[in-house]
Specification:
The chain has 647 residues and is mainly α. It has one domain: Sodium/glucose cotransporter, CATH 1.20.1730.10. The chain contains 28 helices and no strands. α3 packs antiparallel against α12 and α9 crosses α14. The longest helix has 33 residues. The two termini are 50 Å apart. Its main location: membrane. It is found in: Membrane. Belongs to the sodium:solute symporter (SSF) (TC 2.A.21) family. InterPro entries: Na/Glc_symporter_sf, Na/solute_symporter, Na/solute_symporter_CS. Keywords: Membrane, Transmembrane, Transmembrane helix.
Amino acid sequence: SSYRNRSSSTSDYFLASRNMHWIPVGASLFASNIGSGHFIGLAGSGAASGIGVAGFEQSAIYILMLLGWLFVPVYMSSGVYTMPEFMKLRFGGRRIRVYLSFLALLLYIFTKISADLYAGALFIQLALNKNSSGWLYLAILILLAMAAIFCIAGGLSAVVWTDFVQTILMVVGAFILMVLSFKEVGGLSKLVEDYPYARATNRAKDHDNSTCGEPSPYYLSLLHPIQPGLSDYPWTGMIFGLTINSIWYWCTDQVIVQRTLASKDMIHAKGGCILASYLKFLPLWLLVFPGMAARILYPERVACADPVECTKICGSAGGCTNIAYAELVLNLLPTGLAGLMLAVMMAALMSSLLHLQLRLHHLHHGRVGGPKPAGPSQAELLFVGRVFVLALVGISVIWIPVIQNTGNSQLFHYIQAVSSFLAPPICAVYLLAMFWSRTNEPGAFWGLMIGLIIGMLRFVVEFSFTVPPCGSIDPDPRPAFVKLTVGNVHYLHFSCILWIITGLVTVGVSLLTEPIPEECLYRLTFWTRYDPRIRHPLEEEDDGDDDAPATNGGHAENAVNGSNGATHQMEVETHAEEESIFQRIKKFFSFAPTQEEEEGPKVVLTESEKAADAAAFLKEPPFWKNFVNYNAVVCLALTTFVWGFFA
């Protein structure tokens, strides 16, 4: 089946032929976001401090509407396959898209792969009842071995359908566990009543004589006070900083946006966003409340409040709330269902590695820019890319001890903190690129560079010092200046500061340098998305990217020249007869589409026809347009009610 699923063209590989229905699109959006790190992280943060962490899920609903109604129309009309391509068309040059591609790769390693590896390995470690770090790394090797076998499937279509099946299993298994956990604690009302009293018997005292392990007094609130140390979710950060991080993740991240670009049309893209929005109401009930139940049911383990005891239980002196969901699975579910939930978590990790491989394919496929090497073939580049995946996963494994020993030992907070240090500049530049035509390449580039420097400073300082957990006799190694500027500035507040600085630098440099000509921006900003005029390229499109998208949108295949294509096909057929066995085996295990699998002759369109076709692609049937708009209003009303009810 691996051979049959290999994609037959570039469009198949990157966009699943732009033929995906709204149901798999929406399910894939949800599954791409909710991985094993979320199972462990959301439930763990729920056990630690209540429902505040659910604000991250509720905020995503607003941003998914921005994705479907503001961002995707521009991406669709521009005719791009990937986000680096959009940067290429919008700004020209190579340095921005090269930088963004590799930064996205690093963010994926530190916030997705390493977190999913840690979460899955923690689950296996607990299932085997082994608490040593050696068993943790053995579990990681088991996960990686299974993922390596799984990753021989190909193309976005395979990933989307994998995510679709994973979503079904995920929701069904989590729903069963939610029912069992509510039943075990006596219902939702009993859970709310008992949570404030769920404490471990042996609780240490901190240096200021305060008792460790006390439940948060704001456990039923999404918005907490601003004062440092009083809460994990200050309301200013949850409203402003979280919005910035969410726009980066949902509206500019390649893995997420690619799902919507694979849709049949705008109606299916919006429908997928709406389905994902409805699914985002589930984590509060399927993950956060069960995490709170785990604290009530297993307070000595989940709510441990002594560094020595916690190290014995889960290997982390800062606390063991990360084991909340695994404790429920292993203690409440029958053996078969527990195995199913473990399979879902492993499937999430495998999906994450496939996403990583797709990212590398974008880099090797000429999607980042610059001439392709004259020597190695595309298949050889992809073969090297597989080795590169192993190297990047190795970095993720090495980074796991840092995750395990972060300040409050909450996996979800670690993920959000890293995103807050590196993602806000990307959000600022994309927003300006979309909605302010005066933004140019020098402004965007220097805004990103200043943002990177400031963000990396916070990143390095944050993880250079291990803050002693509550109850530890070790002194705090951080200098007073670091405590003031880092310890007292919540990562969501830092996200706001970084976003503002990046935006100011981008605007300032753009105003001091030459603007981009108007004729180069047709269908590249929100205000010109319907413009049918021919877009003039900022630079020569033929920079070695022989399968770059058409300049004026539409499908790249439409730009293929018939005679040249026929000549090339003859060369490929002649070469195919001379292929060695090794080359054929390597091609079998590569994602590279073969010429034999390419479709027949393509229709050649003029530039004006491509431009008109790209603009017309956004048109929606009136009935279905109203239908998705009404559903969007319902989603927004429901999530606003949830915010108000739990504020």
